[in-house]
Amino acid sequence: MTSFKTVESGIQCSFEPEDRRLLAEIVPMLEGLGPLDKDPAARRLKVPLYRHDPTVDDKLRPFAEKELAAARRSDRKILTGVVDADDPVIVTEDQASAFLRVVNEGRLAFAAKFGFGAPGDYDGLSDDRRKTLEDLGRVLHLLTVELSRPL
Known about the structure:
Elements (H helix, E strand, L loop, with lengths): L2 E5 L2 E5 L2 H15 L8 H6 L8 H31 L4 E3 L1 H21 L13 H22 L3
Antiparallel strand pairs: 1-2, 2-3
């Protein structure tokens, strides 16, 4: 069973083979996103920098885009390292948080690619697509609970 457990040196991660395969798909999918005008997942992941004024957001974006891209690359490298390592792997809380961010990013992107944009859309998803989102949600939940535990 996929699990996350706080140990003295960090957070111990162990993965079911099926979860490991799914997690391994996230980074290649994210790195293969198309342009904003053609890929719903790319649009979903475009983080508003200033939500209340699109003009200000457009002006700030060139300054923040490089830093945001570098942070995402760093986080994705951590997820790849964790998924490629043999069980159990121990990560720091910062690495676990990076892992969490990428799994969440992947879940949002998969949902957008699957056409899930409103609550009623979930019922129209195939069983495989529903399972993908549920499995990623379960991993997110387990790690969030573990990161929230007091030492």
